[in-house]
Design goal:
The complex is a heterodimer. Chain A is mainly alpha-helical. Chain A is built from nine helices and no strands. Chain A has a single domain, classed as MetI-like fold. The mean pLDDT of chain B is 90. Classes of the chains: A mainly alpha, B alpha/beta. Chains A and B meet through helix 5 and helix 6 of A and helix 2, strand 7 and helix 5 of B.
């Protein structure tokens, strides 16, 4: 028995958690990649991009080993595998590269000389970040959050391995659709899930575009428009 | 007392600067060909070129001494840096740009009046002309109560009469507040109105004219 409302609710919960939990990580790492040059930077970028190219099932398996009974975090008794938290972790890890790269681009779009002007006005770097850099990058960061949310909605492989496919607990839209397609006559029941997926995806893409356009407009100066 | 003592070396790609400048003047005008490093010279004074090596002393305060590993960061120098393209914070209206480091509202209105930007206070930078943006950037720098004002072609986008008038008003303001100024410009009228000591930067070196 599959409850479409439960699957939609779980997908939205997982997507929102990914967007929220990933925000400080994306802001921190994205800012470092955009503004700092250091030894090991290329290695950091490579490691960050790994989940993007690794088959999600493999990512899920590695996460299962990591959080499993014999994993390095076993002593913490985190209860991640086969729970909603596991679904969030799986979607978070798979979507993090997109989130971080979106944040990096959002910070790179902000001319660092704005920060320099702020310093010369007596405002130290941390306060300059809060008053200048962050507000200017904010729409781009929000676009990254939407992207992470949208990626989480589509997550299947890593979630299935780490969180399983438990009705009412970890069965998100993608897993519910897969389960229905595997069941005899199940195809008849996917209508609601299908339309919900399309509606949420379109809304997410529209949100992503809107935030990106907002950032471009925010940074748009007369000089760049040739006035 | 010496106002400004600068001995600095800096290599930035094709640009190699070896600057020696000592002056008691409160107003210094620097000119020189395009690409000679005039803007970079201002950035060294502002503390925005950490790769610069040498010594910088302003009014007896050591801001940079690479031998002694002293580098006062830009936010502790109290300079008013006005870059050539103004760099107004694009998400803040003119009033908020001016208020960024302003001590109070009264000072903000005084400077806005001096620079004739009062009617622009509620506009966003993207809705200003080049000359208006430069005036607001100058006002923002003045309101931070700087010890040293660093101006990079601040009047370039203004009409000739307004340029001379504002340069004269600025000179008066600097005298009133005993504010030292380094002005980078090609504009003879503005340089004359400021009535400063002239230096020329060329081939990586700076010399009195």
């Amino acid at each position: 028995m599959i409850d479409p409302a439960s699957a939609i609710r779980l997908s939205l919960i997982v997507g929102l958690w990914c967007a929220v939990v990933g925000f400080p990580v994306a802001v921190g790492v994205g800012w470092v990649l955009a503004r700092k040059r250091f030894v090991g930077r290329t290695l950091l970028v490579t490691l960050l991009l790994v989940p993007l190219v690794l088959p999600p099932v493999v990512t899920g398996y590695l996460l299962l080993r990591f959080f499993g009974r014999e994993g390095p975090l076993a002593a913490l008794d985190l209860d991640i595998p086969f729970t909603l938290a596991g679904a969030v972790v799986a979607a978070f890890v798979v979507g993090l590269p997109l989130y971080v790269m979106a944040a990096r681009h959002a910070f790179e779009a902000v001319d660092p000389r704005y920060e320099e002007v702020s310093w010369t006005l007596g405002v130290p770097p941390w306060r300059t970040f809060l008053r200048i850099t962050f507000p200017l990058a904010a729409p781009g960061l929000a676009a990254g959050a939407v992207l992470s949310f949208a990626r989480a909605l589509g997550e299947f492989g890593a979630t299935a391995v780490l969180a399983g496919n438990v009705e009412g607990r970890t069965r998100t839209i993608a897993l519910a659709v897969y389960t229905l397609l595997e069941s005899p006559g199940g195809e008849d029941g996917i209508g609601v899930l299908l339309w919900a997926s399309i509606a949420i995806s379109l809304a997410a893409i529209a949100g992503y575009e809107w935030f990106n356009r907002w950032q471009r407009r925010r940074l748009d100066e007369p000089r760049r428009r040739g006035r | 007392m010496t106002t400004l003592q600068l001995d600095a070396k800096l290599e930035l790609g094709p640009l190699a600067l070896d600057l020696h400048l000592v002056t008691r003047a409160r107003r210094v005008v620097v000119d020189g060909p395009s690409g000679s490093g005039k803007s970079t010279c201002l950035r060294i004074l502002a503390g925005l070129e950490p790769a610069a090596q040498g010594k910088l002393v302003i009014d007896g305060n050591v801001w940079m001494d690479s031998a002694a590993r002293v580098h006062v960061p830009a936010w502790q120098r109290r300079v008013g840096w006005v870059p050539q393209d103004a760099l107004l914070f694009p998400h803040r209206r003119v009033r908020a740009n001016l208020a960024y480091a302003a001590p109070d509202d009264a000072a903000l209105h005084d400077v806005a009046r001096l620079l004739r930007v009062e009617p622009l206070l509620d506009r966003l930078p993207r809705n200003l002309s080049g000359g208006e943006r430069q005036r607001v950037a100058l006002g923002r720098a003045l309101l931070a109560r700087p010890r040293l004002l660093l101006l990079d072609e601040p009047f370039a986008a203004l009409d000739a009469p307004l340029r001379t008038e504002l340069a004269a008003a600025l000179a008066e303001h600097c005298t009133e507040h005993d504010l030292a100024v380094v002005l980078v410009t090609h504009d003879t009228a503005a340089a004359e109105a400021l009535d400063g000591e002239h230096w020329t930067l060329s081939g990586g070196r700076i010399a009195p004219r």
